[in-house]
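Course assignment 3, question 2. Fill in each field.
Student: A.L.
Task: Predict the tertiary structure for the chain below.
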Amino acid sequence: MKKKVIIVASDAGNIGKTLVASVILETLRLTEKIDGYVCDRNFQGLYERYGQKNSNGALKPLHLQDPAKGVAFLDIANPDEKSKVASSLGTDSNYLLFDLPANATHQLATCMGTPQDFIDFMDFADADVTFVCPIKDQKSISSYKSLKETFPAGAKFILAINAGFIKSTESNAQSIIDSLIIQFGHEPHFILEQSLSPRIFDLLKNNTLREVFLPREERKQADGSYSPSDSAYLAQDRGDQFILNRFIPSVTKAVEELFLND
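Answer field:
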């Protein structure tokens, strides 16, 4: 099968790119081989959550990370690292995920020379490219539209509508969400429906979603019991557990439908 290159990108900051990248990486790793790359030298949340750790529990340095098991660094938007981008496609993993920094999409377009050169190179390497673009406001929408214009052919696009973020920051949240769904609901998309608390975001700085809380449906034993107990997880607050018990299955199902049932 063709390799699937997934690029989480937006020129807007603080819209949930790394959360979206985390959801995709964690979901696909349940059943598939996927290489993970953080592409931002200044913000390495994906590395802090999913990077391999040594026997003492400390993160291994980025240059020692195996991207198929942890998260490595690759500046995919830097023309000087074109050979490293090419080498990354030599993996035996079926999927590659790149978590881009804000304001990197223009540089990405010139990494291989031109946008078409980039797509042609990926096609030559027998890889399909899918851009995943979180949206929640006009800046992120404009970034998405600009990216589609930059790569007009040969790339797929999936929207991640960050409804939970909108709910936690906007007084007229539902009208904004409804407007986004009306405008973009006909395009491939998934919705981050639940609002995660500041406690959860703090826990997610250094832990995976399933380390913070594993949904009960994934803990059900053959005899019908559930193990381990809720108290074994970092999300001790019952409200946080309630939210995560719905958030993780919903986004997992959406990611599986978009990437595994293609």
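Instructor remarks: The chain is about 40% helix and 15% strand. The CA atoms of residues 157 and 218 lie 30 Å apart.
Grade: pending
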